[in-house]
Amino acid sequence: MPANSPISRAVLYVLAAGTIALAVGAVTRAAYGWAFFSAALLAQVVYHVSHLAKLARWLVEPSAGAVPEGKGYWDDLLAQLYRHERGRDWQLRERDRALERFRLAGQALTDGVVILDARNRIQWCNETAERQLGLHFPGDVGQPINHLLREPALQSYLDIADFTQPLALRADRGEDLALQVQIIPYGQNERLMHVKDVTQAERLDRMRRDFVANVSHELRTPLTVLSGFLETVRELKLDPGQRTEYLTLMSEQSRRMERIVEDLLTLSTLETAPRPSDEQVRMRPLLAKLKADAEALSGGQHRIMLAAQGEYDLLGVESELTSAFGNLVSNAIRYTPEGGEVRLVWSADAGGAEFAVEDSGIGIEKEHIPRLTERFYRVDRGRSRETGGTGLGLAIVKHALARHDAALEIESEPGKGSRFRARFPARRVVAAAQLARSA
Ligand code: ADP
Predict the structure, then answer these.
(1) Are 318 and 281 in contact (CB under 8 A)?
(2) 51 CB neighbour count, 10 Å cutoff
(3) Among 198, 228, 318, 366, fewest CB within 10 Å belongs to which?
(4) Strand 303-309 versus strand 341-349 pairing type
(5) Which residues are CB-contacts of 175 (< 8 A; sequence separation ≥ 6)?
(6) For 220-261, how does the pLDDT look when each residue is reduced to its tens digit (9 = 90+)?
(7) 3-class DSSP string for the chain
(8) In this structure, are 305 and 408 located in the same domain?
(9) How many angstroms does the Cα of residue 267 sit away from the middle of ligand 1?
(10) Whose Cα sits closest to atom 13 in ligand 1?
């Protein structure tokens, strides 16, 4: 038994007290010896009981910082307890920190994550999942996920429990969301539910499919007409007048296909090619050219006016700006009946610039305006075709302007006319005079 164990210490104490008590009894009276022995034992009991009381008090609310101090043997014992508690405290703090790190990592995920137990009850979820699925943490903890999301598809996904494939879900969270849910079993019968928002990807996929269908349709129509005429010219005996008429119609159709393909190539360049470096685009000559082109296209059927205010130029790519502005001007002419008016307005100052095309044409119903820049979107397909439109003009305008940090604004009133405005921020505007000086 080690010399400083509690039992050896107690035995030593009793032996020492007994020896002294015997001595006291021998020197004085035996009763004094007994009294001394009893007092020594009582002191020992008080010593232990008072320390036990301290320990009991501490155990009600144990914390490393509040471990009581003791005397003698109890001092060693309580110091050991203090060291042990400090170590445990440190371990707990480390564990909390690690847990917090995992929680923050889960929160930082852009996909939704829900942790479920073996009976599909929610244990934890991140904020993305709260938003996507309308869950509330910690309010919904312990609730079976299929009670909160009453989707038959989710119910059977959980029942069948074949989680090799994700499940497609739709959710109405103010906007229609397309979600892809995948359950990943892990650990002791626990499940991680991974929720991916595929709304945007689905929309892009739909747009891509629509686009391919539209292009095919747009090209097939003139191609069908063209091959029909070819057949006729080959099979039938035509007089020279008819022959010329057919050949003219054929060349119109092939010209139409050419325009579609040209516009498609322009769009694809605007979308994918890196933008050439900016140059100072001189606005005065550009405006004059736009007006001349408008007059040529109009063939004298419209009044065309140009108003330019401010000696400023734009910083950008001349070919792209010419294409954007040219499309706006050509639309104004094409959608304005004979005798109407088309105004090109350029106004610029150091705070920004605006190129506007105003016409007194057929105008556009309100509900069409947000869709006009979609590829192949036309209000009146027949009129667009008759006037040589491809349905791609405003899509080109939108992309070309976006590459110049500019926005397109459309105002229109059916029967009265339209105004298309391209607004450029200050950083795209440069004083025209500077060009002369720097040149
Ligand atoms: P399109 O080749 O058919 O003109 P755009 O993309 O240039 O194609 O324009 C899309 C549609 O927007 C047109 O078909 C037409 O219905 C409408 N639109 C464009 N500009 C005007 C305008 N100035 N006035 C009336 N409608 C217009």
Answers:
(1) yes
(2) 20
(3) 366
(4) parallel
(5) 199
(6) 989 999 999 999 888 888 888 988 998 999 999 999 999 999
(7) CCCCCHHHHHHHHHHHHHHHHHHHHHHCCHHHHHHHHHHHHHHHHHHHHHHHHHHHHHHHCCCHHHCCCCCCHHHHHHHHHHHHHHHHHHHHHHHHHHHHHHHHHHHHCCCEEEEECCCCEEEEECHHHHHHHCCCCCCCCCCEHHHHCCCHHHHHHHHHCCCCCCEEEEEEECEEEEEEEEEEEECCCEEEEEEEECHHHHHHHHHHHHHHHHHHHHHHHHHHHHHHHHHHHHHCCCCHHHHHHHHHHHHHHHHHHHHHHHHHHHHHHHHHCCCCCCEEECHHHHHHHHHHHHHHHHCCCCEEEEEEECCEEEEECHHHHHHHHHHHHHHHHHCCCCCCEEEEEEEEECCEEEEEEEECCCCCCHHHHHHCCCCCCCCCHHHHHHCCCCCCHHHHHHHHHHCCCCEEEEEEECCCEEEEEEEEEHHHEEEHHHHHHHC
(8) yes
(9) 16
(10) 378
Atom index in ligand 1 nearest the CA of residue 357 equals 23
- pTM to 2 decimal places: 0.68
Tell which of 97, 130, 147 closes a domain.
97
- Cα 378 to averaged position of ligand 1 atoms, centre (Å): 6
Q: How far is the CA of 130 from the centre of ligand 1 (A)?
A: 43
Please count the structural domains in the chain: 4
| Substitution candidate for ligand 1 out of 261, 341, 342, 378 with most atoms within 8 A of CB | 378
pLDDT value at position 433? Answer: 58
Q: What is the CATH number for 246?
A: 1.10.287.130
CATH code of residue 178: 3.30.450.20
Question: What CA–CA distance (Å, rounded) separates 281 from 112?
Answer: 48
Residues enclosing ligand 1, CB less than 6 A? Answer: 327, 331-332, 335, 359, 361-362, 364, 372, 377-380, 384, 389-395, 418
Q: How far is the CA of 349 from the centre of ligand 1 (A)?
A: 29
Distance 219 CA to ligand 1 centre (A): 19
Q: Give the distance (Å) from ligand 1 centre to CA of residue 10.
A: 105
pLDDT of residue 439: 42
Domain that holds residue 234: 204-271
Structural domain contains residue 378 = yes
**Chosen domain end from 197, 217, 247:** 197
Residue owning the nearest CA to atom 8 of ligand 1: 391
| Residue with CA closest to ligand 1 atom 2 | 389
Which residue, by CA, sits nearest to atom 20 of ligand 1? Answer: 331
